[in-house]
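Colleagues,

Please find the record for the four-part complex below.
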Amino acid sequence: MQRITESFEKHAFMHTLGAKLTNVESGEVVIEIPFRDDLVQQHGFLHAGVVTTVVDTACGYAALTQMPEGAEVVTVEFKVNFMAPAVGDLFVAKGSVVRAGKTLTVTQGDVYAITNDTKKQKHIATMQATMFAVVA
Amino acid sequence: MQRITESFEKHAFMHTLGAKLTNVESGEVVIEIPFRDDLVQQHGFLHAGVVTTVVDTACGYAALTQMPEGAEVVTVEFKVNFMAPAVGDLFVAKGSVVRAGKTLTVTQGDVYAITNDTKKQKHIATMQATMFAVVA
Amino acid sequence: MQRITESFEKHAFMHTLGAKLTNVESGEVVIEIPFRDDLVQQHGFLHAGVVTTVVDTACGYAALTQMPEGAEVVTVEFKVNFMAPAVGDLFVAKGSVVRAGKTLTVTQGDVYAITNDTKKQKHIATMQATMFAVVA
Amino acid sequence: MQRITESFEKHAFMHTLGAKLTNVESGEVVIEIPFRDDLVQQHGFLHAGVVTTVVDTACGYAALTQMPEGAEVVTVEFKVNFMAPAVGDLFVAKGSVVRAGKTLTVTQGDVYAITNDTKKQKHIATMQATMFAVVA
């Protein structure tokens, strides 16, 4: 799983957003991002684009855990449903492999908003994404 | 179209990314974002999440241009295909209304990468998105 | 759950395809369809459109189980990934509610192909769909 | 374009539905289907699955027109928005290539409902789909 953490280190936008890779297993990756005032949209909620960025990255790396050594992962496409406003102190994005193929891997992702006071988790977004294995 | 520009001003994440609203017409909105080193993924291309953020915002505001005064727009869901690496100096995202309904508006978006030297435009991403009109 | 079975009875296209409603619970519906020679595409596999039809219907009825009495369900949009050729003797589509809202319900669906000989299940398609509650 | 018409002939489900291939050009395919009572859902409208089937087929064949000789086309995934009830006498599905790649082709599709009396066209659905070239 070292290649995932090494790749994440090179991922400038993850650092710009303050996102952290918190778990990597075969077929599953978790990324967390704390709320920040400069990441919101016009209503003061975390921008759908930020939510999408972290769950896309989690799905991409989940796919990469099951690709051959030396492969790189590229997002072909994804679809996201936003189910509740992105309100909370911490956002946890989990990406999982649904089916790993030679060229294409189908993944599924979910984002949860956590509020510090209540420790309640709210399921705010769900993604279905297709990843491509670029083999050198 | 003043409400679009006013709303965009309050949109912190657009400023964080350095995105600018460059055109607003009824049913169509254009947002531009210059390349920046801190917005890239692990291969040095603009992150799919950044591309998605600007085209989602363009689609959302395109929908808002045709919603009643006082309405606010929320993204229900979107789907994006990434067709070429996001390589270029400037990225132009255009969002258009396909069908405006009372509650839901279907929009379509495209992102083009422009390289300063060559002035060539490359079509790098296409989005289909559903927007919700929140009427107070 | 009677309203689901009554609605399914009126659903001419389900009968045309030979599909059967085999389970209805709150938030989950299962529809099965046997393979038939007149439902295939050019390579002899069950057409993606047939697979989509049954899982869309399963997702729509799953959403309807959690809508108020008198409501009708309409599909806003869906996205399907086809993960393996639709080869088998029986196809089982399961639709589940991810989040039920007042107006919109997000659902998730899966289709499995079963081969009589081997009794093996293959996961051939996965759907993410948005349903609308039309309340009279 | 002969390979498209030959492939369409072998496409049993298109015949079952009564669909006809009415135009084939490089990068664009049109399929038409008349309304029929046995293709409706519970409200008497053409089933979303039928609408999807014809536009998926139009998009797949549009992609195939730009694939190398001997290639076969498989749907990776699609997303469809249903924008108005499928009410009409004839439904026309048009599929177009957005970007043709070596392995993957991105397509866009639209479905229009036509009413005989009024000759009015209504735009009822829009699709964004990814097609895969299987090269022997």
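The interface with chain B takes residues 79, 81, 83-84, 98-99, 101, 106, 108, 123, 126, 128, 130 of chain D (CB under 8 Å).

Comments are welcome before we finalize the supplementary table.
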